[in-house]
């Protein structure tokens, strides 16, 4: 009986250890995948880093840096962006930061950002209405990178820079729906219940009644004198 109990305990312990190992491997794999999509390293030999599922690609040439530089990708939204979109324009599908903890490069890197068909449609169906903007910390505004090269086949914009920062796709030609119109509201206050508004008809009726009483009174006076 003791042997059977010990055997069952051993099986339970081995099963628990196996499950713990499996979950540890799964967690480690998930963590590495998550990190790979949000953090990358550029070494002295250059290289290519892909972020956001391949929608943002950073390429560095050989010798752009003498030591490893860690690049951290952070996706933003219109609510978390450092400033609102430029006047008359709207944010596209990509707002993000490429943080190097202050490190810069001795050669130009390329940052390629992919926009979507929905971005193009929102920009009046024109590729040239989709632009890549960079946030300027000194002025606190978004500045268009007018040197960004468009690729209308791949739907991408590619900028060349020695420092990285905060980027956004900005759309021009966006049609803004006019505010809904409302029917005019009648502000005339109706008379309270029991009140009588004086109209021309009522005034005429009152005049006729008064004239009747005046004539009737004159008739009675004349009759009394005759009698």
What does this structure look like?
With 227 residues, the protein is α+β, with helices and mostly antiparallel strands. The protein has a domain of 136 residues: Chondroitinase Ac, Chain A, domain 3 (Sandwich). It is 31% helix and 28% strand. The strands form two sheets. The protein has a six-stranded antiparallel β-sheet with strand order 1-4-5-11-7-8. Strands 2-3-6-10-9 form a five-stranded antiparallel β-sheet. The longest helix has 37 residues.
Notable features of this structure?
227 residues; Chondroitinase Ac, Chain A, domain 3; 3 helices; 28% strand
Main sheet strand line-up: 1-4-5-11-7-8
Q: Portion of residues in helices?
A: 25-40%
Broad CATH class of the domain at 36-171: Mainly Beta
Low-confidence stretches: 19-36, 191-199, 218-222
| Strand element count | 11
Strand-pairing-aware structural class: alpha+beta
For the record, the CATH architecture of the domain at 36-171 stands as Sandwich
- The oligomeric status of these chains comes to single chain
List the total number of helices: 3
Largest sheet: 6 strands, antiparallel
From the N-terminal CA to the C-terminal CA, the straight-line distance is 144 Å
Topology as a string of helices (H) and strands (E): HEEEEEEHEEEEEH
Annotated CATH topology of the domain at 36-171: Chondroitinase Ac, Chain A, domain 3
């Amino acid at each position: 009986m003791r042997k059977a109990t010990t055997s069952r305990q051993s099986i339970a312990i081995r099963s628990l250890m196996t499950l713990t190992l499996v979950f540890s491997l799964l967690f480690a794999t998930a963590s590495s995948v998550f990190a790979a999509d949000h953090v990358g390293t550029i070494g002295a030999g250059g290289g290519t880093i892909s972020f956001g599922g391949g929608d943002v690609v950073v390429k560095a040439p050989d010798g752009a840096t003498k030591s490893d530089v860690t690049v951290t990708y952070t996706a933003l939204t219109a609510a978390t962006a450092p400033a609102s979109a430029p006047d008359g324009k709207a944010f596209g599908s990509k707002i993000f930061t490429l943080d190097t903890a202050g490190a810069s490069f001795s050669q130009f890197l390329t940052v390629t950002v992919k926009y979507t068909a929905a971005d193009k449609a929102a920009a009046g169906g024109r590729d040239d209405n989709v632009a890549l903007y960079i946030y300027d910390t000194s002025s606190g505004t978004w500045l268009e990178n007018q040197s960004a090269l468009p690729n209308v086949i791949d739907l991408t914009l590619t900028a060349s820079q020695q420092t990285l920062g905060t980027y956004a796709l900005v759309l021009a030609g966006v049609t803004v729906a006019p505010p809904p119109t409302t029917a005019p509201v009648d502000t005339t206050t109706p008379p309270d219940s029991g009140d009588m508004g004086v109209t021309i008809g009522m005034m005429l009726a009152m005049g006729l009644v008064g004239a009747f009483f005046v004539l009737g009174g004159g008739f009675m006076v004349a009759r009394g004198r005759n009698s």
